[in-house]
Amino acid sequence: MSPEGRGHGVEARSQLARLGVSRETLSDLERYVAFLRQWQSRINLISPNTLSEIWDRHIVDSAQVFALRPKAEVWLDLGSGGGLPGIVIAILVKNRGTGRVHLVESNQKKAAFLRYVVQELGLPAVVHALRIEDCLPHVEQPEVVTARALAPLDRLLDYSNLLLKNGAVGLFPKGRDHQEELTEALRNWQFSYSLHPSVTDPKARIIEVNLRGT
How many CB atoms are closer than 10 A to CB 193? Predict the structure, then answer.
């Protein structure tokens, strides 16, 4: 493994250990980070100014989403982009031994990257290179829907409301404006929610959304 792939610091390693990430899983995460760095020169997979903080800003941030529903069998990640949190979740699902992850990404170049990572790491994941609205009618009902840095909460609920009404839970990492997004979404949707603290940013939250029974 190249130094670039192993460039995680002590704090990120400690955070991942607290989230239950095994040594074997860490090896797959290192390979994934190496792939991200290699492809980043050709495709804008993540913001270039976060490359130096990739472990804290992206890997740990994604792993904490899985930690909120570690027993969920079927995951659906909307607008997967470079695979955050979808690929990280798929790596953790692989380590657990059961489950599958659906990755929805309409950008064909990014979808090609996702397929490459899935194949190279042997991940239990399927890449859907389609627009969200075209894909969702044909994807199995998930237990958890995720999306990171894709759209405001109001739009995420527009995308996923039928899945959530059928029993899925939404886990949506949000930054320091999470309260404003909640206020706007509550104007248009009836839902119950919980706010989970982020281990990577004290002002950020993961919004857990439930629409069943509302």
Answer: 16
